[in-house]
Write a structure and sequence with these properties.
single chain, 429 residues, Growth Hormone, Chain: A, 2 domains
Amino acid sequence: MAVVRDLRLLLRFRDFRRLLAVRLLSQLSDGVFQVALAAYVVFSPEKQTSPAAIASAMAVLLLPYSLLGPFTGVLLDRWRRRQVLLYCNLLRALLSAGTAALMLLRVPDWLFYLSALSVTGINRFVLAGLSAALPRVVDGDRLVVANSLSPTAGTLAATAGGGLAFLIHLGVAEGRASDALVVLLAAVVYLSAGLTSLLLGKDLLGPDPARVQPRVGEALRSTLSGLLHGLRHLRERPRAARAMAAMTAMRFCYGGLTVTVLMLCRYAWADGGAGDGSGGDGLALLGLAVAASGAGFFVAAVITPWSANRFGTFGWITVCAASAAVLLPGLGLPFRPVPVLVAAFVLGVATQGAKIATDTVVQSSIDDAYRGRVFSLYDVLFNVAFVGAAAVCALILPPDGRSAALVIALALIYAGVAVGTARTPLRFT
């Protein structure tokens, strides 16, 4: 197969393999940390979770740093990206260990959220830096394949980390101690990711040495003007802006469905449908949903290079969005575990397939000097869309997560994305 041949060739690049190792370890620890938070916030026996509570948690953890996201991009275009990957992962290891201690000490929720927010906030630097650095370790001809392998492999690593956290939770007694143990595991893997980044050359990942500003104050003083230049550069690249808009809408849908599945697992499906929120089968079903979505990400990585070549990047985004629009109502409206698990797989393929295409469009359209800023803006749109979806769910979802109106509305948004990308002029394809 052509895809397998291209992947084998890509993995021969030493620096690509090393950057990929940093991504895998970093996102593996992300998966462990996020599942630990979900278990602590959503599935703790002493907590009565609601859609509004989940929305509040997502807003606290994602929104503040989403608003600061563009500034991280400016710094990524001025600091050595290898050093960013090193120091950010080391700092996340330290903060994760502190979060585990706060879990055991039974501190007020606001202090716990502040610590967790610090860990997830630093993630803005890491993910944007990894995406901005990718074109520095592969050639342009293999960028689509690299975007299929690298971010998708990272997502699969996060899924594997989540699965590992689920196994630990299912194998040990419930309580704060098990949650803290999982967070400590995340800290160890974050430390490994930081040390692995030392295998890469200090200047390899960019930006060009002439643009590096080692002093924080000097970099911050140029942040505002740099951000404005990045926005202007994006406005002059309608191909990238259009793809990012489509992906943001699909991320909104994915966020709404994530909250829906969380509530279904917490109440409607818990203990075989007892609905008392006591846990039981709910956490295991959530693990299966995460695994199904991860399997969809893997399939997307395999088929997207061929599909993007066959349909064009925007054509493939259209196919992904249209498939989600058609299949979501039939699979989601029964609100039964098996159809919803199938929907998780389908939406995993559609969401990751569209993201790979979008990443490729942005990377190929944006100049290297602006790539960090644009990918940080891209990251901000992702998080704001997710938080916005959670806020809508807080208004619409009943406590058990069953809302036909929400499922139909999300299917219509997918359809709107498909129509919008299908109408893209040929000069954008």
